[in-house]
Amino acid sequence: MILEVTAATLHDAKVAQEHGADRISLVTGIGEGGLTPSYGLMKKVKETIHIPIFVMIRPHNQSFQYDEDDLQTMIEDIHYAREIGIDGIEIGCLTEDKIIDEQALKRLLDAAGEMNVTFHLAFDEISDQEKALETLVSYKQIQRVMTSGADKSALNGIPHIKKLLRRMKDKDIILIGTKGLKPENLQAFLSVTPVKEIRIGSGVRVNCQYTKPLDPRSVKAAKETMNKQK
C-alpha cells in the first residue's frame, strides 16, 4: 500500500521520507488545499529526496476554472517540473458547470508527456462522479484520481468511495483516499475500504494543524497501520 504525504517544505519532505512515506505531494499554500510550489523548492526537494515526488499544479485557490493566462502558467510549471525530473503532477480543471474541462486537461497532459498524473480533489466538486471517471479513464496518462467520496472527510465518504471502486473495477486507474485521515482513524477506513493508496495532509502534522510541521511519529504510525493491511 502506498502512503503519499503532503510536504510544504524541504524539511517536511525529509521527515516524510525518513519515517515511511512512499511518495511526496509537494505543495505550497497547504491550508488552501495546495498550490504550485516554487521552482526553488521543487529543485531542492528533487536534489534531496529519492522517493517519488508529485507536484501540485494549481496557480490559485479561486476555483478549479482556468483562463488562458492560468493555463500558460500551469504549462510552464509542468515543463519546469518535467525538466528537473519530478516524477509526477497533480492537476484538476473544471468548467463553470463543474464538469471536467477536457480542452484544458488535454493541454496540461500534452505538457506532462510521460510524467505520472493524478487528477486531484477538483474531482470532488463534480456532481456526476461516475461519468467523470469514465472520462478520466479514457486518458491513459491519468493513473490516479484523488477523492474523499465528495465529503469533508474520507470516513464520511466511505459509502461513495466504495461505489466508485466498484465502478472502477477492471479499469486501469487508481483511487486515492484522502481528507480527514490520520493514524488514529486510518485502520477504520482501510478495514472497510479496499483502496491501495492514501494521501494524508494535516493528519500527520503536529496537532493535526496545517500550520505545523510534519510529526515523525504520526508519519511512522500511518505507514505501520497501512503495512498491516497487506
Question: Can you tag this structure with a few keywords?
Answer:
230 residues, 8-stranded parallel beta barrel, alpha/beta, 8 strands, TIM Barrel
Explain what this protein looks like in three dimensions.
The protein is an alpha/beta fold and 230 residues long. The chain has one domain: TIM Barrel. Helices cover 37% and strands 16% of the residues. Strands 1-2-3-4-5-6-7-8 form an eight-stranded parallel barrel, surrounded by seven helices. β5, α5 and β6 form a beta-alpha-beta unit. The chain is globular, with a radius of gyration of 16 Å. The model has no long low-confidence stretch (mean pLDDT 95).
Count structural domains: 1
Cα-to-Cα separation, first versus last residue? 7 Å
Shape: globular
Overall pLDDT confidence: 95
Quickly describe the structure:
With 230 residues, the protein is an alpha/beta fold. Helix content is 37%, strand content 16%. The chain has one domain (2-227): Alpha-Beta Barrel (TIM Barrel), CATH 3.20.20.380.
What topology does this entry show?
Blueprint: E1 2-7, H1 10-18, E2 23-26, H2 39-48, E3 53-56, H3 68-83, E4 88-91, H4 102-112, E5 116-119, H5 129-137, E6 142-147, H6 158-167, E7 174-178, H7 183-190, E8 197-200, H8 216-227
Parallel strand pairs: 1-2, 1-8, 2-3, 3-4, 4-5, 5-6, 6-7, 7-8
Helix pairs in contact: 3-4, 7-8
